[in-house]
What does this fold into?
Amino acid sequence: MSVERGILVIDTDTDRAWVHGPCFVCNDVMTYNPNKVPSLPAEVTGTHRQPLCRKCAMKASENMIARGLPGFTIAIDAYEAIPVEELPR
Ligand SMILES: [Zn+2]
It folds into this structure.
């Protein structure tokens, strides 16, 4: 799994999967695509790569851009379920 926080949910009726868990910064519970959710790297969190909700990702991106760093690009499906076959193996 590319993000180590939250619970992986697999809907066998629709063959779709998502992760349900808290944002690393604000702890709001969200549903997200484990492959595309914006996240903070392990070097920053001190543990694993950690997911960010849309609000915190946008705020972090603004801060990064203000410091001359590339901001996050938030994928259109970052907070959507994905087909089960796209899960990391
Ligand atoms: Zn958040």
